[in-house]
Amino acid sequence: MGAAFFYHLTDSPLEATLPMLIGKARGAGWRVLVRGSDASLIKRLDEVLWQGPDDGFLPHGLAGGPHDADQPVLIGDVPSDGFQCVMGVGGADVDASEVTDLERVCILFDGHDEVALNRARSQWKALTDAGCSAQYWAQEGGRWTKKAEKEGGS
Predict the structure, then answer these.
(1) What is the pLDDT of residues 9-20, one digit of tens each?
(2) Alpha-carbon gap, residue 65 to 131, rounded angstroms
(3) In 3-state terms, what secondary structure has residue 33?
(4) 10-31: string of b/e by CB count within 10 Å (b at 16+)?
């Protein structure tokens, strides 16, 4: 049974945080789906991942291609079948069954955007009310700090 990790982005933008989290997930051996529905955001993230982090390249593809099933990281708004980790960006939907079926669901949201904050709050409530385990992480002085945790079923 997995957990939902909420990442409140205040110091680092999505373009810096997402590659770091993907690297950690890939290091755990997980296949990653970056779920988002906004075409311009998907394109921007694709470009960011092609540039890669300083210490390595993150192989990935855009959903809808002929080799989707072979991609270690896939970006798009598709079902989570075959993945161990889903990273929701831009307010993307995730549901409780994904949290329980996958190793991890990560929800990344812009801490300077009131709409994004409200969306993340509603996702936290929906997932924890459904019995999912969840953690809330925030940035403090460039470091990630766990601010809240709710165990599944409580």
Answers:
(1) 999 999 999 999
(2) 35
(3) strand
(4) eeeebeebbbebbbebbeeebb
